Amino acid sequence: QVQLVESGGGLVQAGDSLRLSCAASGRTSSILNMGWFRQAPGKEREFVAAVTWTSGSTTYADSVKGRFTISRDNAKTTVYLQMNSLKSEDTAVYYCLAGLRGSYNIWGQGTQVTVSS
Fold first, then answer.
1. What is the DSSP string of 64-108?
2. What is the helix, strand, coil percentage profile of the chain, to 5?
3. 113 DSSP 8-state letter
4. What is the pLDDT of residue 103?
5. 20 to 30 A Cα–Cα from 91, which one of 10, 18, 32, 49?
6. What's the pLDDT tens digit per position in 29-64?
């Protein structure tokens, strides 16, 4: 099995930057891709960004393109989300997701990001 531990959330002001980390452990050889989702109060969980573990190709939600950057460190089996020019609407609980072989998905516990205006 794979376990995910997220870190890096916090309270920042609009325009600030923040970097989230998600470290994977366990059967990490089964990871095909990793990504970030977020869920704001009263809203559904939405896709933010993803990276393919082997090729490093990335995809982003339109709402974060040009502001957020997802990257990975294969040696550390860690994925990062660099968030710049944060806005109040970025406030949410951010969840890390690992897509595994066999179509299994593993979620992290979530980390709170609060952007004050």
1. TTTTEEEEEETTTTEEEEEE-S--GGG-EEEEEEEEETTTEEEE-
2. 5, 60, 35
3. E
4. 83
5. 32
6. 999 999 999 999 999 999 999 999 999 999 999 999
pLDDT in tens, 69-88: 999 998 999 999 999 999 99
Helix, strand counts (H, E) of the chain: 0, 11
Instruction: Report the C-alpha gap between 79 and 3 in whole angstroms.
Output: 13
Residue whose structure tokens are 């470290």: 23
Written as one letter, the residue type at 68 is: F
Evaluate whether 17 touches 84 at the Cβ level (below 8 Å): yes
- Select from 68, 108, 69, 71 the least CA-distant residue to 89: 68
